[in-house]
Design a protein that fits this description.
Blueprint: H1 12-18, H2 23-35, H3 42-54, H4 67-81, H5 86-90, E1 92-95, E2 98-101, H6 114-125, E3 131-135, H7 141-149, E4 154-159, H8 162-174, E5 187-190, E6 205-210, H9 217-220, H10 243-251, E7 256-265, H11 271-281, E8 284-290, E9 296-302
Parallel strand pairs: 3-4, 3-6, 4-5, 6-7
Antiparallel strand pairs: 1-2, 7-9, 8-9
Length: about 300
């Protein structure tokens, strides 16, 4: 018998069904519960929740679910049922071939950002020991991706949010092998993208990579349920979503060495506007980058 007093309110009976059940069957029941509240990819989520609790894939594990595992599973499932992000429940999430720690207060890394990071890695590899700036760094996934594949790179990660800085520092110390608090992978600085460039030496960087806030005011009003748990500061790009691009394109151009690059992510409907902003600011050879679904999601631009 499951200890009902330890179950989330309203889900006591649900836990009774799961105790002693094979993990795969438990996963299917959790998936059904999640699907009933519109959770996208409910089967994937349920599988991950079981894996978090048991440490094993539910398709592999044969031992039945214990009472303690059921209590943990139902508690996690209840949060996910409320559309709380799976990534926050996991506490970490894969990006490229490593994992970053995530939680409330920081933007969740997404696969859409990987092609942008790969483009930045390609540009960084062309320089022997590149100086790289990860602007609006958030979790630091972009800067860490560059450091992972270009070990000689000196990467400075700038983030304004105190909450996100906590996660950025954790990842700078532990997301990649061989780094620690005393010897982090990234140089972490607190700073506002609209003022950080002031007083900085010209031609300080070979590459700037950035995923700034780019949602429009209208898009901020109709966020997916999960996204509402993520920090608005990391999402809100102003009325038309282009506020950061206008500033970065002009104000950060002098910080990039001649022949250096800016690689930026944006919303897939913004590519024409961002391309025009970059070209008007003086960037050349603007190349549009596509995500895994073939949509325009980023740009690489060169300082002549």
């Amino acid at each position: 018998m499951v200890n009902e007093s330890r179950m989330p309110e309203g889900l006591e009976g649900f836990g009774e069904f799961l105790v002693g059940m094979p993990p795969r069957m438990g996963m299917e029941l959790v998936a059904g519960m999640l699907q009933s509240n519109g959770c996208p990819d409910a089967n994937f989520d349920a599988r991950e929740l079981v894996r978090m609790v048991t440490g094993e894939d539910p398709y592999v594990r044969q031992d039945p679910l214990t009472e303690e595992e059921v209590i943990q599973l139902v508690t996690l499932a209840a949060r996910r049922f409320e559309r709380y992000p799976l990534q926050y429940l996991a506490g970490k999430w894969p990006f490229l071939n490593f994992e970053v720690q995530v939680g409330e207060g920081v933007l969740i890394p997404r696969a859409d950002s990987e092609p942008v990071c790969l483009a930045a890695i390609e540009k960084a590899k062309a320089v022997e020991a590149p100086a790289v700036l990860d602007l609006c760094a958030g979790s630091g996934c972009l800067g860490l991706g560059v450091k992972k594949f270009v070990p000689a790179a000196a990467v400075t990660a700038v983030e304004k949010s105190p909450e996100a800085l906590v996660w950025l520092k954790k990842n700078a110390a532990g997301a990649l092998e061989g780094f620690s608090e005393e010897h982090p992978a990234l140089i972490v600085e607190e700073g506002d993208a609209f003022t950080w460039q002031e007083g900085k030496a010209e031609e300080s960087f070979d590459l700037i990579v950035t995923n700034p806030p780019y949602l429009t005011a209208d898009e901020m009003l109709v966020l997916q349920a999960e996204v509402r748990f993520e920090p608005a500061m990391a999402l809100d790009g102003g009325v038309d979503g282009l506020r950061f691009y206008r500033h970065i394109a002009e104000a950060y151009l002098p910080l990039v060495k001649h022949g250096g690059w800016l690689v930026a992510e944006f919303g897939w409907l913004q590519w024409e506007a961002v391309k025009a902003i970059l070209e008007q600011a003086g960037w050349t050879e603007v190349t549009i980058l596509k995500d895994l679904e073939g949509r325009p999601r980023g740009a690489a631009a060169k300082r002549p």
